[in-house]
Amino acid sequence: MGNSHPGTQYHVHFSEEGDAKRIKKACKGAGTDEVTIIKILASRSTEQRQKIKERYRALYGKDLEKVLKGDLSGCLEKTILAMLDRPCEFDAKLLKEAMKGAGTHEEVLIEILCTRANSQIEALKEAYKQMFPSDLVNDVQSETSNTLRKLLLLLLEADRDEGFEVNESLAEQDAKELYEAGENRWGTDELAFNTVLTKRNCMQLRATFKAYEALHGTAIDEVIKRESSGDVEKAYLTIVQCTRDCQAYFAELLHEAMKGTGTDEDTLIRILVSRSEVDLPSIKERYQEMYKTSLAKAVQSDSSGDFQKVLLALVK
Length: 316
Hints:
It is a single chain. The chain has helices spanning 16-26, 34-42, 46-60, 64-71, 74-84, 87-98, 106-113, 118-131, 136-143, 146-156, 168-181, 190-199, 202-216, 220-227, 230-258, 265-274, 280-291, 295-302, 305-315. It is mostly helical. The chain starts with 15 loop residues before the first helix and ends with a helix.
């Protein structure tokens, strides 16, 4: 969803063997050299980290994740292990964790499934199947209900038009259908909202939102807030916001995670790791524009110790 501005960290003078040996040395003996581990892994791309993992296993006969899990702890451990996953594996783990136990963390399902491109959804479905003894579609079906379930299942079909063409007559037609399904009836017909929001490309949706406001004098956000509530409202607004400005959406989530007295470390890890090679530089720019401070400064004041070091290394 939205525009993508890659910010891949790539170390030109890269040696997987050299990195594997340095990490081995950092984990040796009584104390762990966390700074070296952070310095190496935060300055490598996902692809390079996969090569380090493979080389580590070949050299020492052990999984790097298991070694680091035993040597690190807390939020630093969570962040480093997330960085060692391929993006689709990290997403799959986040979704599984969100559906585990008695309650479901719908906000995580919404954030991931409403913001990923078709290819990313297909990759995470495949990763989920490889990693867990269940199917993602079946799990989402059993862990959610009603309109939210229908919306997420449509997103999991991963068949959104991802072109850039705009059909103005379709935009007007969709705008009329959304009006008939929402403001112009008693109760909301979510099928129309679900179909339009999950199948049209970003440029087409922008044209539809513009047509809606021109025809009916109300912004689509206001209509959604009036006509829906709870997780469905959150999901619809996520799609609308990401259609307009995906980087602003993530900047806002990061700000919310650090606002007030406590810090939502899981959200910081989830966004900074998952967007690091997608659009993090643009998220940083939007954060600065929106909150008149740098993302790095905000992270620095809301975290500490080695966790702070690894987050700042990602944000840098």
